[in-house]
């Protein structure tokens, strides 16, 4: 093949890979003209699935440093850098955190458990040292800033980890008992865990694949938000996701799952008192 | 060169690229042994900087579809998918949103402005159709779920955009006037804007580079959180970031900036009433 022929073959292979990635993500054909371009980063992201079983292989300090460098490279509101991360490897501490997070076995079994925290303690120390006020921390906006900053950073870390062959899963369960998690990790006032993240090298025996998501038209709106068309899109999703649940021997119905999960305070595994917990940990959320 | 020699040269080039990326991010030498491995995704993330000036080139629908596919591929708590995104291209709507976001010129000038929203309206519609309760939405936990879900998705979209040669910047300013933003975008009750995102092809004339972040030791903790050592790390950061500010003709002092930004309600550009705004938009945040 000459150079032009080779380039045509590569483009065609990329288009095919993109179409397959779309189908795996949505369980439907890619829209016409998709994609304009394709690359390794898009391929990596689209094939994401949570990993909860790991090989007995440590995550090195150098690898952790790379993940945190990726995390710190994410955007942060006004460069405030309102987050920190606590890396837990100690088996007993992981066991205690696993219990606090609803007895999730993978928290104990992952070689590395990261707790991502919203962090105002660093700024409080700066403020005290400069005899300056830091009253903005008392507002709900501070909670949003901390949650968003932590999430942007953590998502970069997870994608970075996946690019290095690791896998992982977010653990919202650390919000079940925020004060006990804070005590375990020696968090000072003004610091609260937002979520955890299990990381390790995937055990291929787990055999999970990407979970289908809602049709893109349900979440992507043009110029203004449209609710009514989502009814039909959710119905078609319900069918597709049930095929997936069947293949994974999981109980069916996305609608059933989300309605059960959000029914009321009793379905929040302790998180109906999250606001009180944040207040106890130094966030007034006014 | 034979294959082994070639591989040694590649590894050495990767190690050098990694060391340069670390130095650009932290303005200090990379730790010994860094990195264990290096790749294009890490390189892309570490060189991130916000882009606020754009070439006059549209972002195609196919590209937008790829970004949203990447966003939907991010983790979402319990697969609840509690976010949506409104893509705004209309010049007059961008102008109005720009004004609401504190007259940020790049909101108007970006060819594509995305508003990332925490979305419970989709589930509310499902709940009403099934005559089922959705009381968990009344809790602060629902706000955390929505903010985190939206941020994980949006960060994937931004990295995906950067992998395709685009650049962008998060716009927290849409929280200055949440009700007006909701009216502009026809958001139903249970949907609230978390942040915006300007996207476009970078104008090289902007000439910005990556902003240094806090030393990694300030944000990465092992086993338990440590506050006291951060005092010295912040002091060394203050020096490094001032060198950066000088090079960009920006006013100096990270400490001065963050203390000004978080001093009190008057420094929150309207966001001291964010809690009331969320309540008006259907989030009780109990």
Q: How are the SSEs ordered, and which strands pair?
A:
Two copies of one chain form a homodimer.
Chain A: H1 3-26, H2 40-46, H3 61-73, E1 83-88, H4 91-100, H5 105-109, E2 112-119, H6 121-129, H7 140-163, E3 167-171, H8 178-184, E4 191-200, H9 216-219, E5 220-222, H10 230-247, H11 254-261, H12 274-280
Antiparallel strand pairs in A: 1-2, 2-4, 3-4
Helix pairs in contact in A: 3-7
List its traits.
globular; homodimer; 4-stranded antiparallel β-sheet; 286 residues; alpha+beta; 48% helix; NADH Oxidase; 5 strands
Query: What class do helices, strands and sheet pairing of chain A give?
Result: alpha+beta
Following the backbone from N to C, one meets helices and strands of chain A in this order, namely HHHEHHEHHEHEHEHHH
- Range of strand content of chain A: 5-15%
Greatest chain-chain contact: A-B, 135 and 135 residues
Termini separation of chain A comes to 67 Å
Overall tally of structural domains of chain A: 2
CATH architecture group name of the largest domain in chain A:
3-Layer(aba) Sandwich
- Low-confidence region ranges of chain A: none
Q: Nearest-angstrom radius of gyration of chain A?
A: 21 Å
CATH topology label of the largest domain in chain A: NADH Oxidase
- How many helices of chain A in DSSP terms? 12
Overall geometry of chain A comes to globular
Strand order of the largest sheet of chain A: 1-2-4-3
Q: Count every beta strand of chain A, where a strand is a DSSP E run of 2 or more residues.
A: 5
What is the fourth-level CATH superfamily of the largest domain in chain A?
A: NADH Oxidase
Largest sheet of chain A, if any? 4 strands, antiparallel
